[in-house]
Amino acid sequence: MTAPASKTEGLVPLMLALSATTGLIDAVSVIGLGKVFTANMTGNIAFLGFAAAGTPGFYFAPMLTALGLFLVGAAIGGRSARMHQDRPLARWLLVSATIEAILLIAAAGFAIGYDIASLSPRPNLYAIIGLTALAMGYRNATVRSLKVPDLTTTVLTLTLTGLAADSAAGAGGNANWGRRVLAVVMIFAGAAVGAFLLLNWGLAIPLLVAAAIIFASSALCAVRVK
């Protein structure tokens, strides 16, 4: 299912809020779980290359766990999108938000008693990696199906490329420059807030904050797009 063009603009605030949660999740995974991404798989592919070359500090198991569970989440998200093809958009948004929030809350549960410095206990480490990657895979598949222009909520390479290529310097018309800039700002802000929360109160708090933002913003958006 793709969101109707008439409703796409109404999804922009939600996509920006979800972008902020990507920053929170990136802070959790990169700072709290070692050298691994659970929202950005491009980074993991590069890290796997580093590990293959024997670079110290880069290990296959965490990144393969993240990559594998991300793909599982994306497959589930794709199936969910097709199941909601003929159903109200609001229902789809609420179902997706509930799934993401539950997975992140579960990850927060495993973060209790987890030690960032030693990355232990190891079962908790892999549980947090797996649950957050599953949530982000599901998210990416959902956002891909919604097709809101310039707002992927998880990666910024194409957003920055579009911002520059379509600017006056690139002889463009500055299309969607506002939402592109806001997408960058939101991921930056989410990462900064996530790092602050993690460094001061541990891993569980940024995960719970991300879950709350996802559910609250999706619920508000669902009311508007009915």
Automatic annotation (TrEMBL):
It comes from the Bacteria. Keywords: Membrane, Transmembrane, Transmembrane helix. InterPro entries: DUF1275. It holds the Pfam family DUF1275. The chain crosses the membrane at residues 12-37, 57-77, 89-112, 124-141, 181-199, 205-225. PANTHER family: SLR0142 PROTEIN (PTHR37314), UPF0700 TRANSMEMBRANE PROTEIN YOAK (PTHR37314:SF4). This is DUF1275 domain-containing protein. It comes from Sphingomonas montanisoli. The lineage of its organism: Bacteria, Pseudomonadati, Pseudomonadota, Alphaproteobacteria, Sphingomonadales.
